[in-house]
Amino acid sequence: QNYCKPTGQIHDACCDYETVESVNDELFGRLHELVATPYFRYHKVDLARECPFWEEDGSCMNRACGVETTEEDHIPEAWRSHALGKLNETSARKTSSPAGCTEISDSDFCVLEDELDSEGVYVDLLENPERFTGYAGPSSARVWKAIYEENCFTPVPFVDASRPAFEGGTGFAPVSSGFGGLVGGGGGGAGAGGFGLAAGGWGESEKRLLGSLAGPRDPDEEVCLEKRVFYRVISGLHASISVHICDDYLDQRTGEWAPNLDCFITRIGQHPERLENMYFTYVLLLRALSRSGPQLVRTLDATAGERETRDRLEKLVRVADGCPSTFDETSMFSGGKEAELLKSEFKDHFRNVSRIMDCVGCDKCRLWGKMQVTGLGTALKLLFSYDAASPVDPGAPHAVALSRSELVAFVNTLHRLSESLAAVDRFRTLWAHRGEPA
Ligand code: FAD
């Protein structure tokens, strides 16, 4: 019996785990090839920007925290700042902020860096994989705390006590067997949902979450869909980062990089709600892909994407188009003035999260943190910048404009999440064969 496979409906999505996994089987290989093309592997980022919220006390000195940068003359001519500046004028309408170094327009969910900013460096993403760096302790804890406690609305996902949250649980942390059992945490189900919450290792935010799940809920306390989505997206990103850390982990005794099953169990396996949020984040990105395909291809055309890369992107979009719908964005921000206010609050919070990325004290983590927050912000922009009254026509001239770096960030973020799902599958196999001689 396979105890390690989540099954059933994913909350707040309109699909189940099985569907998402089969879609991922179709897409992962294509995404993996796409991010290896020159267009998608070179990215410009400013890693020197100061934390705007607190004094960051020193940066991570581990070798693994360092980023290898690429000289501008190694970047294909068409994507260098001066050339891209001309192309971007036609592909994306932008308004400079008063500070002149960041850009924000009403449709943006992120504070975007100016691609033409001379402060930024070029990075080859393939040469700087997201993996274990050793960045931890008060600095990283402060960043996550600031994100959850100050910017995530109330970090309490809604659980409808009237229906089982997971039919039969996620299957990932059963009460007496499975991952929870392995590390002694135990996975007692909480409330009706059978979340399989582990007893140990709770942060403040999750203690509140546990409290909220433990008993019958007052309907007035229920958190609205938009706020739940915000929390789920952040938690899903956090879970995906954790999966990459555990999947490409440095064994400090042998100096070898390899998957670390204990790391995965402690950070994810014991917390099925984190796993569910990771699937949810992928679902949201998938929806943005299938809904905005032609627009993504148009952005690539407008920013000198190569023919072969265009073909690959088009094929990816076509496959995604043929997949079942994963998320209903029209159920969000609908309902007049109040909804508009909520949307603007949602944007403000998300923009704040993008600013907090400058407080990450490890360059490699900052690179991928910024990239993925930009990628998620781009997905939100694609999903929510249309007039709710007139359903999307991505071919329409008024469709929201993207820059090359938003497209690069979106596709790479989709790939990060897709790879995390694939890694979870590998961890399942490791779990199934645990204890066997190598
Ligand atoms: P943390 O992951 O720091 O979590 C802090 C607290 O948040 C936990 O105690 C728990 O209460 C809660 N929590 C944990 N996961 C979730 C979740 N999914 N949903 C909701 N709540 C949760 N380290 C690397 O080695 N490589 C990287 O590439 C990397 N990138 C990072 C990017 C960013 C933006 C940040 C802020 C940190 C990054 N780190 C990276 C550090 C890494 O995320 C952890 O902070 C570090 O490994 C310490 O982990 P931890 O077990 O103490 O818990």
UniProtKB/TrEMBL annotation:
Q: Where in the cell is it found?
A: Endoplasmic reticulum membrane
A GO molecular function term, named singly, is: FAD binding
Q: How does it sit in the membrane?
A: Peripheral membrane protein
Highest taxon, organism lineage: Eukaryota
Assigned keywords, A-Z: Disulfide bond, Electron transport, Endoplasmic reticulum, FAD, Flavoprotein, Glycoprotein, Membrane, Oxidoreductase, Redox-active center, Signal, Transport
Q: What GO CC annotations are associated with the protein?
A: endoplasmic reticulum membrane
The processes (GO biological process) annotated in the record are: protein folding in endoplasmic reticulum
Question: Which cofactors does the annotated protein need, by name?
Answer: FAD
* Subunit field text: May function both as a monomer and a homodimer.
Q: Which family does it belong to?
A: Belongs to the EROs family.
This protein's name: Endoplasmic oxidoreductin 1
- What species was this sequence derived from? Rhodotorula diobovata
Q: Which portion of the complete protein is shown here?
A: 46 to 483 of 610
